[in-house]
Amino acid sequence: MALQQFSWVRSIRSNATHGGVALASVLLSLGLLSPSRTNAASTDERDNIRLELRPRICTLTTNDTQCDTVVHATWRSPRNESLCLVIVERPEVKRCWEKYSEGNYSIELIFSADLVFQLKDLDLKQVLASDVLRVIREAVRYRHKRREPWNIFN
Amino acid sequence: MAVRVGVFAIIAGVSPVHATEADDECQGATDDCVAIGGWNFSVAVGAGVRTNPLVNGKAIPLVVIPQFSYYGKRFFIDNLDFGFTLAERGTNTFNLIATPGYDRVYFYRTDLQNFFIGFPNALYPDSPALVTSSTPGATKVSPPAPHITYFAGPEWTFKYGPVTGQLDLLRDATGQNSGDEIRGALGIPLLKSKGTVSANIGFTWKSAATVNYYYRVPILYSGSAAFDPFIKLGYTLPLSSKWRFNAFAEYEHLGNGIADSPIVAEHGVATVFVGAIYTF
User: Fold this and answer.
1) Of A62, A147, A152, the CB nearest to B159
2) Which of B16, B74, B99, B104 has the fewest Cβ atoms nearer than 10 Å?
């Protein structure tokens, strides 16, 4: 029942974004849908699907130009979901599940900038959850070399 | 030591400064700047030789010459030298350094400094002999057998236009001879196009205690302080991002306190090298 209700709410929100503002207004006026209920449902929906990445940070040292590591993505939901895991600007990466309440995915990635992982619905239109694998570059500081004209090789 | 630091400050015409102020001037790895916290390795490969002024002294071949350094925010290692940057502002830097006594390289081919000036492919024979046991009526004289020593003291380095300078006031810190040494030099670029022609002029002043630690001969000779000036001409040409051609010739004149020792046969030390340096 809960699943149906959330699906319905999702449908309402989807339609509203496509110009179905009038329908939402009618429902609101009939008292079938209060603004607070709509927002709460939407928030709950996003909060209830958890996506976690390991590692969450890749640190590049002075001599590194890019990260090369296996990334483990894990998601959980209190109910069955049909969704896909994608990485922004990495169209080649896509893993989908249908009617699962959790999933794991591991992939070796080479990257030099932050990677945004997203769980989307099967149409890849709505973002259900996201997490970021951040790249941190070790700050390189410089100083003067020792001046040593006395040394034979300087 | 405090007096010496004060003298350095007066010479430089500056007051004590914060060590970090000059860091901002270095924005990347250049000829003058280096990354903090990283090791730097290079090796020179070529052909060269450094003469040995001792009686029976064998010249030191220069074939493979590894160089390394590490720079922390203040602490640094520069081959066999250790240093701590006390203060730095603009073109003046004040360090405390520890550096090996140099003259031992003439007595022991296996001295560590020879690993960083040449390729230790042979051991010296016994120390220079004044007489051999077969000499009729000769009295055997024990030759010097200097240990490894480290000098320590303040160092002032500076840059004035294209000219770099270095002045070290050093004292034996290993309790071997309680001698003093002053090292000073200027590096002067002469021509710069694709390659750079440069001249280095400088000196080493050694106190009598330092001179005698290496060159005294019991009964026969006790030296005085010595002033050893040197001049070097060098040419460097970058060949790629990693390789550069390098050639130089140096002549160091030995002061009388050293040259007059009966175990010294030459009044000077000449060094020449032609090769390439690879930076890792």
Assistant:
1) A147
2) B16
Residue B183 CB burial class (10 angstroms; 0-12, 13-18, ≥19):
buried
- Chain A residues whose CB is inside 8 A of the B93 CB are 144, 146-147
CA distance A71 to B279: 35
Q: Which residue has the tokens 């970058």?
A: B238
From A143, A145, A149, residue closest to B187, measured CB to CB? A149
The residue type of A111 is F
Tally of domains in chain B: 1
| In-domain check, residue B160 | yes
From chain A, pick out residues whose CB is under 8 angstroms from the CB of B36.
140-143
- The answer to whether the pTM exceeds 0.90 is no
**Does residue B31 fall inside a structural domain?**
no
Give the pair of three-digit tokens for residue A21: 């503002």
Asked if the C-beta of A140 comes within 8 angstroms of chain B's C-beta atoms, the answer is yes
**B91 is in which domain, residue-wise?**
62-129+145-279
Q: Is the ipTM of this complex over 0.90?
A: no
- The Cα–Cα gap between B205 and B183 comes to 6
Question: Which one of B86, B102, B157, B248 makes the best mutation probe of the A interface by having the most chain A beta carbons within 10 Å?
Answer: B157
Chain A positions touching B67 (Cβ under 8 A) are 153
What are the angstrom distances between the C-alpha of B239 and each of A74, B171, B236? 51, 40, 9
B99 three-state secondary structure: strand
pLDDT tens by residue, B218-250: 888 898 999 999 999 999 999 998 999 999 999
Q: What are B178-225's pLDDT values in tens digits? A: 899 999 999 999 998 889 999 999 999 999 999 999 898 888 889 899
Task: Please name the residue that has the structure tokens 């020879």.
Answer: B114
Ordered per-residue pLDDT tens for chain A, 154 residues: 333 333 233 333 333 334 444 444 444 444 444 444 444 445 555 568 999 999 999 988 766 778 999 999 999 999 999 999 999 999 999 999 999 999 999 999 999 899 999 999 999 999 999 999 999 887 778 888 898 888 877 6
Closest Cα to residue A58, out of A134, A149, A144?
A134
Query: 3-state class of B57 per DSSP?
Result: coil
- Tokens 């040197």 label which residue? B230
Q: Which of B27, B34, B75, B105 is the best residue to mutate to test the A interface, defined by the most A CB atoms within 10 Å of its own CB? A: B34
Give how far A85 is from chain B: nearest CA, Å. Answer: 40
Which CATH code for domain A50-138? 2.60.40.1930
